[in-house]
Amino acid sequence: MYTGIMEKSIVFEEIFEIENRCLEKGCSFVVGVDEAGRGPLVGPVVAGAVMIRGVDKERLQEKAILEDFGEDIFDLIKDSKKLTPKRRDLVYDFILSNFYVGIGVCDHNTVDRVNILEASFLAMKKAISDLKMKNKDVVSWGDEKIFLIDGNKTIPNLSDNQEAFVGGDNLVKLISAASIVAKVHRDRMMEKMHEKYPQYGFDKHKGYGTKAHMEALEKFGPCEFHRKSFGPVKRLLG
User: Fold this and answer.
1) Does residue 25 lie within any of the structural domains?
2) N or C: less crowded end of the chain, CB within 10 Å?
């Protein structure tokens, strides 16, 4: 958990500029959605869905500052790839404590069966379903809502309002938060896989096709968690 917190007032409209515009147009709540794990050769694709409601604006006028880093916690909610693992873990805890969060996972078998793009969309839908299930007593899901999606495509067959943002994890605070949730959750899953198959170094490269990973693949062959439809793994399987 994060420690060393001080409180400082913020201007919600500046921190959550795009989200606030949605709320001002009449949305009762806004959800940012992003995924982690499209590129790796092994493991699941994971999506995060992070929500704020209109009534949260007043609560979020107080923001936390991490004294350890001397940085504003909301400034640290950004593209997960721009944070160190330690900072991601700290911000992840902050997000889970201060926002409504859902997580969706599609395993390597699903990736192989439907392809990585479709698995990513499915993980996003699962994250949204998880968010709804966890908060069904807090939010009336019949209210007006909008989902802000990272990338250039919206989620197929989702009846709710959506808007896609290329580079959304750098532009939209809730998408940034969703990227951190997805990344940390997936990294922890890969660390569990490392305990079973330490020879591949999943704890370091998290399944991406690094030189060390490719050398281990050549030496040991694929394990049960490798994506058999991905080129480097598929070639080894003949």
Assistant:
1) yes
2) C
Please give the model's pTM, rounded to 2 decimal places: 0.93
Q: Is residue 238 part of a domain?
A: no
Which range marks the domain in which residue 142 is found? Answer: 5-195
Compute the average pLDDT of residues 13-34.
93
Residue with tokens 């493991």: 43
Q: Compute CA distances 33 → 81, 84, 155, 204, whole Å.
A: 16, 21, 10, 26
Q: Are 180 and 174 spatial neighbours (Cβ–Cβ below 8 Å)?
A: no
Please count the structural domains in the chain: 1
According to DSSP, residue 96 is labeled H
Tell how many helices (H) and how many strands (E) occur in the chain. Answer: 11, 8
Query: Strand, coil or helix: what is 129?
Result: helix
* Gyration radius (Cα) of the chain, Å: 19
In tens, the pLDDT along 106-140 reads: 999 999 999 999 999 999 999 999 999 998 887 77
